[in-house]
Amino acid sequence: MTTTPVSVIVLTLNEEVNLPRCLESLRWCNDVVVLDSFSTDATTEIAKICGARLFQRKFDDYAKQRNHALKEIEYKNPWVLMVDADEVVPEEMVQEIGEVLASCKEEVTLFRMRRKDFFLGQWIKHSSSYKELWFGRLMRVGRVWVERAINEEFHTDGQVALLQSSVLHYPFNKGFHSWLEKHNKYSSMEADLKFHQGVYKWKWSDFRHVDPATKRKALKALAYSLPGRPLIMFIGRYLVKGGIMDGRAGFTYCILKTIYEYMIDFKVRELSLRKQGLPI
User: Fold this and answer.
1) Domain check: are 65 and 183 in the same one?
2) Of 242, 264, 266, nearest to 254 (Cα)?
């Protein structure tokens, strides 16, 4: 066990395929917590066998689930690292976390990090928006909250810093059917937010903001305002960002992400027609 003052929370729902590898990468931590959404497979048994503290809560949306984890669970350490079950924390990240927290200023309350997406046995470096997509994951207990039901946003009343190491992400490890089912649900949630709340209002200064999350949010808002958005995003991923260099895996990944974007647009249109009382 390490003396790094960090607890880890893992959110799960039927993750018997992914959870063992995830928990194996967390053996350095003296306080691993699993917040489960009433799995029907062996997820909870695996969590107990591996020595994690287990809590359960019925899932409603991602922001509420993560806020419950941050507000309603007591941790042994002043910092908490939030990890998904299909992710692995590599040794270099553990080492970096220990180093940055040893000299961390009191004002810093949230660290953002990137993750490396793996697909068909390789790291999808270019197609996955690795360079610009940062996630809020390491936070001081009691100083961070989560907004937005899907593709969540982490907010804090303190300062934000960045980690240079990356968590490893295996989003397809439960199979294509699981990825498609999950993104069918994601697209419905995104469509509902877009239809009822509209698109995030951005300004040109956001594209020069020091916070990469603010830049990413502005880019996403700009993309949502463009006609033919899914096709434009495919061209952006595959040609502009260099997804072509990821080979067959990169091309397949870009196609799947484009289908997801089309699903969002189609479902927004569906909601609009239903509101008008028209058939689909």
Assistant:
1) no
2) 242
Do 161 and 238 fall into the same domain? no
Residue 36 and residue 118 share a domain: yes
Report d(CA 41, CA 197) in Å as an integer.
Answer: 36
Burial call 110-136: b when 16+ CB within 10 Å, e when fewer: bbbbbbbbbbeeebbbbbbbbeeebbb
Total number of domains in the chain: 2
Q: What is the pTM of this model?
A: 0.89
Distance CA 256, CA 120 (A): 13
Does residue 280 form part of some domain? no
Classify residue 203 as exposed, middle or buried by CB count within 10 Å of its CB (0-12, 13-18, 19+).
exposed
Residue 150 belongs to domain with CATH number: 3.90.550.10
E-strand stretches of the chain: 6-12, 32-36, 53-56, 79-84, 87-88, 108-119, 122-123, 135-140, 144-147, 153-156, 159-169
SS3 label, residue 87: strand
Interval 57-81 mean pLDDT: 97
- Those residues with Cβ within 8 angstroms of residue 58's Cβ, 6 or more apart along the chain or in another chain: 37, 38
Q: 141 and 79 in one domain?
A: yes
**33, 10 Cβ separation under 8 angstroms:** yes
For residue 20, how many C-alpha atoms fall within 13 Å in the half-sphere facing its CB? 8
Span 179-204, pLDDT tens digits: 999 999 999 999 998 888 876 566 77
pLDDT digit string (tens) for 230-254? 999 999 999 999 999 999 999 999 9
Residue 1 placed within a domain: no
